[in-house]
Every structure is written in C-alpha cells, then in structure tokens.
Amino acid sequence: MSRLRTVSNNEANDAQLALLTEVQVKLGMVPNFLRVFANSPTALQAFLGLHTIAGDGELDERTRERIALTLAQENSCEYCLSAHSAIGRKAGLGNEEIHANRQGTSKDDKAAVAVKLARSLVNNVGDVTTAEIIEAREAGFSDAEIVEIITHVGMNFLTNVLAKASHVDIDFPKVSLQVAA
User: Fold this and answer.
1) Whole-angstrom Cα distance, residue 129 to residue 97?
2) CATH architecture classification, 61-166
3) Are the C-beta atoms of 19 and 49 separated by less than 8 Å?
4) How confident is the model over 25-54, as pLDDT tens digits?
5) Where are the alpha helices (DSSP H) in 91-142?
6) Which candidate in 33, 81, 101, 159 could, as Cys together with 69 as Cys, close a disulfide (CB 3.0–4.6 Å)?
C-alpha cells in the first residue's frame, strides 16, 4: 500500500485534476506514480514538462527505455522496472534486450554504451571518467545526446526515488527485481 496518497480524480483539486486529465488524454491512463506526484501539482507539472522536453530530444525511444530499465534495476525500483518493461516492449524491446538492459548492457553495441554510461552516472553520482565520455563519443553519441543521457538518468532517478519512498502500488504487469543469470 502506498505510503503517500495517490490522488484520485474524485478527490483532486482543480490544479490536480487538470494535470491528471492531461495525462489521461496523452497516455490513455494515469499511472499511480503520477497520482503520487499530483500531491504537489507544481512537482507533477515540473516532471511532465521535463519528461515532454526530454522525449523530444535526439535520443531514440528505445535507448531512453533501455536507460530507464537499467536504472530501475540498479536502483531496486520494482515499480519503475515493471512500468518500463511494459513501455519498453511497446517501444519494440524484446525479452532478451530487456534482460540485457537490466544487467547494464544491450544487444545493440551503441545502446550498450549509453546503458553503461547511465549506470556509471548513478553509481558514481555523476563523477564519470573522461574515458567514459570519450567512449560515448566514439560510439557515435554527440555532446547533445550525452547531455540527454545525463538528463534521462536524472529524470529516472527522480521517479525511482519517488516510487520507492512512496511504496506506490504497481499498476503495470509486475516484474521482479531478480535477474536470472
């Protein structure tokens, strides 16, 4: 059970309801973690703005989902792992790729570098090596895309922390944090 209130449409104030309705229109549903975010319309609006802007960048959807999957696993966030497993499949990631992403890599060589960098950013609190940045450039990532990788790491870390702190109820097909070898 969630430790923070998940704002229902019936109990939402005008600001909350407007944002929840916007999400419903865009996604066809309102995930529970966004209902937790709605406790603060300002925080939800900030997250939605960042999410929209980050989604309009140069990184493709599959790479963004790969980053979300590796961080959910690394940060032990079962809610985000469940959500991004479902979203990743919808984006075209297969079971083997999702498994690889959860282990911090990818079947795609270029994407593997992005996933590895994302995991290093979290594990080293941003203090990655020059060699890691060079590796990303050599894999074909522009500086703009490297900044977007960093942005997606920050955004996913935020959602991992919110989901874990709130113990939000999982409203996607549940995926266990354990990874088979």
Assistant:
1) 26
2) Up-down Bundle (1.20)
3) no
4) 999 999 999 999 999 999 999 999 999 999
5) 95-102, 109-123, 130-138
6) 101
